[in-house]
């Protein structure tokens, strides 16, 4: 279907917004009146600019507080409407959004409202303009879509139809089922917005927290499907008021918006992009560092062995069980200090995964490989992390490991398959740019077919941060997305790789024996564990001795400990028992404070 | 009264918080359990640290979900409590906050709850510890202070009392009148927090948006006065969960917190600091710039005349009517480009104003003056602006203008008293640091006795910003405090000086004639004005010709226009008719977009 977006959804001046909208591939725009009023170009110039960019102007909005019990106010509104019709003629827009009145003098009488809207439609029709009447969730008398439709039906004028807005409908908990009873040709417009589920004043919720479909908690796709089943054939149009998007780069937000609509069309059964190819696990984590020696020492202490060197690049392969880490001594100038630069994702069909990613506007990265290298396709995640689609060790498929020569220099006691060692990568945690947290969760959900968990607020000593995990259904691929409290210097916080082990006590002990340092956990934490849980004798002493943290949920238990931080990277060892689903969020405050203490001490020691 | 603060109110590690609390002059702290658990020091070390800093530990908190219909859960809670009593003994804390249960298994039976709390108090008493039972606003069964008190009364144990929390009481709209019916000795603790009036889920409101008393919308002082009348003699203690304070400098937040309590004591009639000396107007605005030539040109075009030069510093005095601007060519290194560095405040009693400021912890600035200079006391506002207390032109009082020699070089047509020119400074607008917006409104309210307006959200092309004005009761001193959408580079946005005129059309025309540039306003704005208002013929053309913006409220009308921006400063010309009370907020979006357009054009032209 045609795709449109309201200019209020994006940051910048109106010309900047139009450029971003066109570049993202939209067919049209809704012109938000305040954007036009503040624009340095007149309506005719905007019309030309939009036409040059290949955009239609699908809607002019909003026209507020039209209907009234006061004859004088109504006359004023009609005069106001005539002026707006003139502007719309210059703009080349033929559909005006009229939202239900929020004024105390809004008529209680539906017949009066219908008569007034018929009068407005009559005037509009004389200009070739149509009116789409919408119920605001906080409208004074008319605040549900079915009420707005009853009035439109009663007014019975060809230039009058209704506008459906998913936020106004779903935020009130209205049943969208009735949409299918509205004749499709009388649904003049369909505005789509999602929002996180929040218990707050609906006006504030609407004005500050809307997000693109698929980023919040509403079934926006289901609502759109109903409108299509009713016969709606106009554009799918996004109208999102969001405090973060207002500050973000418009071009990038517009792409995020388009990805949202493409994904919605798939969910609603309107379009069929290439199906998602859900990754089954992490093939490798690639760490980039100009000086890889501290990471080598850390991996050695963790029991990893260097098993290969890349044939053409300064990249080493380290392995233990199914956990694989690449150390890349080139390209580390992208971030300060050692950083998590790329992930290999174990994918049943890499070529299909790339097709899926391309169809959802994920930036496909150019292949930089020597003629001998295995073919490896990659896309860039919203935080810049490169995601490679891999098939490891499957006969008949290219294997990225063939780019590495065997390295006989494995240290004693380490290496793949060692008893009680690391078995695989349990999850990775990536710090997201502040402006692109919602974009990231939609990216992983739509491009990779992962399922997002609920967002959580976690406290570190210097502010709350938000965390949201995405995972495949089996829990064999898990990525935790973290975002700092606000834009600024704190966005470059550490990322980490969590390594699974079947016996964390043995593994942690061996790390210590090999000279690896584990993050010291405060003794007060263990006193609190003792108060909260009744451990068997000795167990708590072991946790305390090895700085292992503990959590449980209704499904099982979680034990985890941390290494020191190198640059922007650290490792976590985790052991899950039963079906524990989380990531130890209950311990995040203690871990972050302990890392802060360690930083302070290191700072003093230097 | 003794003053205390919960460690959760501040940013940083527990030792950092204690240091900040002591430095701000608090007597004690509430230890928030998570701060202790995450601390690198054990309870005994924290006890010693607090004692060294002269702080008592007034409360350990919170102990959650104690009461239960399940015998097994109750036994677990009692075991948990015993562990916490041990921690408290090491801490030297003898009061534990127990908040009402949020669990589905909380007893419905008040007698059972009372019996369980009596049992807990008995156990606590054996350790010399007392229990303060508090109703959470979102408690499952017990969620009002009077309900909590009825249970405490029924339990009737000397080691059991109640804790009152102003947020929990006032957020639910409870009548605090009943506080005076509680025997003072059974009010074991009083926690104070304010919050902006918001319609949202009370748990989220409490956890993210609390602020210090005097910064929100609750009558916290009135509630505290009732507790004191009831006979409460414990500390006034702040417990504030605030996402911004979590990120702000702890030392500064602690001073803000103490200022809040000092102001609350005054409002509650508990203490009598020196009375506020409310300024009656702006004596001068001081602009600092390394190169003052562009500002000279702008002031000249606005009709100002240079009337004096400072006898000892590179400072010029420019005047028109009662509006006075100082141009300071020294000290401009504090900010980038020309900036508003200081305000002279017309004050009936400068010495008393300083005593007031000192009593409320405002940083009094050292006097840097030559022997001949007039005595002029100043304090630093939260954004660093220097506020000088002045009496201008009153016989028998030192006049700051005596530091300036007369300058005969006034340009033609300008100068004081010119017909239809600028008469006075209407208001100034100051951009606040993001972390200190609430601090600023409390500062102006408490230190200067100004009244804050409601906060408003305004849209600029790149994000919402918040604006809150403070003014004296006659409206002769008005300061608009603006804050950027988030921390980072956008905090250094322009500040401005608004100049009053009795005939903005004549004044704007003369500015143009003198070669001054006014900010171009988009033509679309005037088309919208035409749609909204029915102007007499010709009036709108005049506004359009002179780029004058228009607003009205129920009291009167407002006309205003803007100069170009120089560095971080621009001027506004304003004409108020009737009793218009605002600042033209309805036009802020258009003004900000126009300034952005002008910046782009200037950037292209350079």
Automatic annotation (TrEMBL), chains A, B:
<dbReference type="InterPro" id="IPR036237">
    <property type="entry name" value="Xyl_isomerase-like_sf"/>
</dbReference>
<feature type="binding site">
    <location>
        <position position="572"/>
    </location>
    <ligand>
        <name>Mg(2+)</name>
    </ligand>
</feature>
<feature type="binding site">
    <location>
        <position position="496"/>
    </location>
    <ligand>
        <name>Mg(2+)</name>
    </ligand>
</feature>
<dbReference type="InterPro" id="IPR013022">
    <property type="entry name" value="Xyl_isomerase-like_TIM-brl"/>
</dbReference>
<feature type="binding site">
    <location>
        <position position="134"/>
    </location>
    <ligand>
        <name>a divalent metal cation</name>
    </ligand>
</feature>
<keyword id="KW-0413">Isomerase</keyword>
<dbReference type="GO" id="GO:0016853">
    <property type="term" value="F:isomerase activity"/>
</dbReference>
<dbReference type="InterPro" id="IPR050312">
    <property type="entry name" value="IolE/XylAMocC-like"/>
</dbReference>
<feature type="domain" description="VOC">
    <location>
        <begin position="424"/>
        <end position="564"/>
    </location>
</feature>
<feature type="binding site">
    <location>
        <position position="239"/>
    </location>
    <ligand>
        <name>a divalent metal cation</name>
    </ligand>
</feature>
<keyword id="KW-0456">Lyase</keyword>
<dbReference type="InterPro" id="IPR037523">
    <property type="entry name" value="VOC_core"/>
</dbReference>
<feature type="binding site">
    <location>
        <position position="427"/>
    </location>
    <ligand>
        <name>Mg(2+)</name>
    </ligand>
</feature>
<comment type="function">
    <text>Catalyzes the conversion of 3-dehydroshikimate to protocatechuate (3,4-dihydroxybenzoate), a common intermediate of quinate and shikimate degradation pathways.</text>
</comment>
<feature type="binding site">
    <location>
        <position position="165"/>
    </location>
    <ligand>
        <name>a divalent metal cation</name>
    </ligand>
</feature>
<comment type="similarity">
    <text>Belongs to the bacterial two-domain DSD family.</text>
</comment>
<feature type="binding site">
    <location>
        <position position="191"/>
    </location>
    <ligand>
        <name>a divalent metal cation</name>
    </ligand>
</feature>
<keyword id="KW-0479">Metal-binding</keyword>
<dbReference type="InterPro" id="IPR043700">
    <property type="entry name" value="DSD"/>
</dbReference>
<dbReference type="InterPro" id="IPR029068">
    <property type="entry name" value="Glyas_Bleomycin-R_OHBP_Dase"/>
</dbReference>
<comment type="pathway">
    <text>Aromatic compound metabolism; 3,4-dihydroxybenzoate biosynthesis.</text>
</comment>
<dbReference type="Pfam" id="PF01261">
    <property type="entry name" value="AP_endonuc_2"/>
</dbReference>
<dbReference type="InterPro" id="IPR004360">
    <property type="entry name" value="Glyas_Fos-R_dOase_dom"/>
</dbReference>
<feature type="domain" description="VOC">
    <location>
        <begin position="281"/>
        <end position="392"/>
    </location>
</feature>
<dbReference type="Pfam" id="PF14696">
    <property type="entry name" value="Glyoxalase_5"/>
</dbReference>
<protein>
    <recommendedName>
        <fullName>3-dehydroshikimate dehydratase</fullName>
        <ecNumber>4.2.1.118</ecNumber>
    </recommendedName>
</protein>
<dbReference type="Pfam" id="PF00903">
    <property type="entry name" value="Glyoxalase"/>
</dbReference>
